[in-house]
Design goal:
Order of helices and strands: HHHHHHHEHEEHEEHEE
CATH topology of the largest domain: Heat Shock Protein 90
Radius of gyration: 37 Å
Number of helices: 10
Shape: rod-shaped
Distance between the termini: 57 Å
Oligomer: single chain
Strand content: 5-15%
Strand order of the largest sheet: 2-4-5-7-6
Number of strands: 7
Helix content: 55-70%
Number of domains: 2
Structural class: alpha+beta
Length: 357
Amino acid sequence: MKLIQPSRLEWYSFLFSMPLISAIVNLILYEERLWNDFRVWLYSFPLIYLIGVVSWYSHVLYADWVERKYPELNQSRQRITGKALVLLFVMAPSLLFIFLVYHQLEILGYQLQTVHLYKGLLVGVSVNLIFETLYEADYIFKKMKESYRQKEALRELAVQTDFDSLKNQVNPHFLFNCFNTLSSLIGIDKQQAEIFLDELCKVYRYLLRNNQEGLSTVVNEIAFIESYYRLLQTRYGEAIQMHIQIDKRYNPYLLPSLSLQLLVENVVKHNQLHKDMPIVIDIFTTVGNKLVINNNIQRLRVKAPSNKVGLENIRAKYALLKQPEFQVIEDAHNFTVVLPLLWQQPVKAGIHGASVG
């Protein structure tokens, strides 16, 4: 077996228990002489301690071999059985070696007695039973933590993959809709189309710079939606209005990227827009770390076709983030979406928001 580094628990258990074990073995060997013959402490105590070091490390090597042979949690029975054999292969030979060496060399006048062997075996079994139980419990605990970390890593990888998939739905969808708008404007007002194209370039450049991650800060999302609103104004003029009231303390909070753009896009898609009866979109924060997007309803006579990229995309992201507070509230006059704002990142760095710059 190769040399291995004992665990911290193995080191501590040896350092604290071996002096006591050495004293007990010497008590078995010399009985009352332990208390009145200083030579027992001067010669025998260090010798047994040294033998104990060899026995303990052999024990560590054997236990490591058993753990590598049966490493899984569902192999605990085989592993415990294998470790129990340490009594046969390590502990018993070590104790027998001590008594035989002391008897043959007559160390400090020792003469072997059968009762000493029984007492020594009783001490060895008791000590090994305690520490084998402790070591196995420690091993199982470590394996459970390792299994938990692996499951968490797989969950985070799955979340990241799902986020990437959802992001990939949004970017082409956003660009496709903007091109449709540009195409419509070209036939109606070429000057407005040029202004729209210029704004589109600014917005999409901003989008590419800030949507590299799945989550964005509130301040970034508001900056983006203001840019997107200028695109809408280029096309619809006073037919659409937007009012934004954000408490500054929520600026560093996080929400899924492009959530506001998707919601505003849905408002435009599913409502009639007239300058005499404008669609008014209110975006504001509330207590409880919530961002609210509310608009009045002016439904189209003919329902617009929908591929459900918008709301379902946002809902899916919040489900991945285990945030059940996402809400959609609708009545005869208003359509409201409540987005929970996240202070700490729910999963590791692959999903946090990029900064503006």
